[in-house]
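DM between two lab members

TW: hey, do you still have the Phospholipase D family member 4 entry open?
JB: yeah, one sec
JB: this one, 483 aa:
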Amino acid sequence: MSSTYSSLHDNYVSNKGRRTSCVTLAVILGCLTVLGIILAIAVLERPAVPDNHETLPEDTGGINLTDQCSMALVESIPLYLKYKDNATFGIPLEQAWKDLISIASHRVEVVSFYWTLTGEDININSTTDLPGRDILQALGELPSRNVSVQVVTSVPTVKTNSTDLKILKQKGVHVRSVEFGRLTAGVLHTKFWIVDLTHVFIGSANMDWRALTQVKELGVVVYNCSSLARDLHKIFQSYWVMGKPNSSLPQPWPEKYSTNINKQRPLLVKEDNISSSLYIAGSPPSFCPPSRTPDLEAILSSISEAEKFVDVAVMEYFPITYFESPHRYWPFIDDAIKMAAFERKVKIRMLISCGRDSNPAMLPFLQSLASMDYPRHQISLQIKLYIVPVGNQSDIPYSRVNHNKYMVTDKVAYIGTSNWVGDYFVTTAGVSLVISQNSPQSSLDNRTLRHQLKETFDRDWHSEFAVHLGDLGHNPDCALSPR
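TW: and the structure you got?
JB:
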């Protein structure tokens, strides 16, 4: 071995100039070959990406104290729904959307289950669709301002005569529809906006004129929070890629869709001496990389970690898989609620929506939960139905309903896009924002979003529109009431 090594070494030294050029050339060719192999593998493994905005933003990790994130509740209160004079409300949904459009400088991304921003979409002639028309027009004008607009919607979706997306396409908006029915046997029920990879809206509102004037909605807008926006953008990109023809779910999702922001490692931000930790959860599991906290886990952990109270406001509550046949019992959230009330004596209040189109099959499940309420044994589990009066708006279908999907505990605020029904966490797409906040002085607590959400729940719980199950008499505006 030593003689062979010596001869090679000597030969290299004795022919230094010629050997150097040969070795250099060999090294270069070798490197190019390896680089070519690496690039080929990357191309083969990479999922299809959009023609524009191909690169996902770099994941900067879960800890970031530099973002000046500011959060605010967003609400839509149906017309003619009157509260007491001292009631407080979130930012009007119409204002929040218009503000996001006005500050957009280069990119707007919108995800919505369906689009119906004009009355003609549902064969209705009503002046209450004017705010929806304004939003449609404002979005359509963005490309002329050199602002790229990308929209994702669902297949299947709500059947309407909507021309919204056709109009937007004609004005330069990029639109893709994800065939969720084929991919997961569910729908894309998500609703969010991302503006300039900096500002975010997440909430219950679809791109529907009724969401602005006829339906009670709740969401959150987060300004100047690029770390959160870039993380949500990864979910948007997963939808966008799956919106290509003949797409198939990758198993597993490529690393660039992974996140360092989750329940175990939330994003940390500070504003006005209020520290917040927040993360985005998602569903269904097949659309999430392992690093993304599942939406169901976000709900279950929020309930299990509560020590004093859990307040829930959702449109629908079914501990079953409702949209598949046959139905299956799906007790995960139901069990978590019962355990919190029974074992830890956490006070539970649930505000479930009831409208003309609510499913009466929900009632036995709600009555089962309410039957556990037993103050003598310190078990507090109360349920009310929130009924929006229909009044003279009876000609507008699927309206006059409380569409909220949120929870607030003594620890966290949870604002989501899913009803609490098994299918929404198994096959259907949704997202949620989970926020935990601490302030150094108790006097500052009323400035936290969690406190604002608690006040919103209390306002609705004690309003004339919330009725205990046991006190529900005949009400034509509630399909769950006795006939």
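TW: got it. Confidence is low (pLDDT under 50) at residues 1-54. The longest strand covers residues 274-283.
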